[in-house]
Amino acid sequence: MHQRYAVYFTPPTDHPLAAFGAGWLGWDIAKGEPAAHPRLDGLPLPVDQITATPRRYGLHGTLKAPFVLHPDFSAEDLLHAVREYGSQQGPVEIGLLKLDSIKQFIALRPADPDPAFVALVGDVVMALDRFRAPMDPQELQRRRGTNLSPRQDELLRLWGYPYVLDEFRFHVTLSGSLSDNQQAQTRAVLEKTLEPHLKRPFMLNALCLCGQLENGCFQIIERVPLRG
């Protein structure tokens, strides 16, 4: 039994972005083990400091955010539901990914998200929500105290996460909080390093059901192909 579960996009293991992301973050989400950081010149801080916050999640884009499993269901029930969903849904294009800054952190996100992809993610959130245990009052109050808009607060109460449906903004986090100067220096290094890996549009052709291990890090339980 894992502490929490999530449904993520992750690049296929044979895609060069997957290998780079594992090393950059220091955690291989596919293998569930630490990965050696690359040696990159020009960074304002050591890689392990830049990536400390997102490390435990591995390289991913959130489709359904981490949740505690509802006591009425087992992990096998959840996996069966994800497999069933994958058997009925075909792949969709995410689009080209570009390096960007979101508030104080660096991420990859679509230059022009495909509406079919955005709609599919919203459907995944709702279709699997019965497996999410309700948040306890203390956790709900903590999350509500993070400068949410009224709409985000409503989504948090309804779906357990404020950035879903019309508030969804797909991204692949690459850093923790950085100053403006640190962001600029880090982005300059990443842009040069990642440029060869971002020339073609990315596809969502699988749902990665992930579980949180005892050390707090996430690992892919199963990559479920979209073959509907």
From TrEMBL:
It holds the Pfam family DUF1045. This is Phosphonate metabolism protein. InterPro entries: DUF1045. It comes from Neptunicoccus cionae.
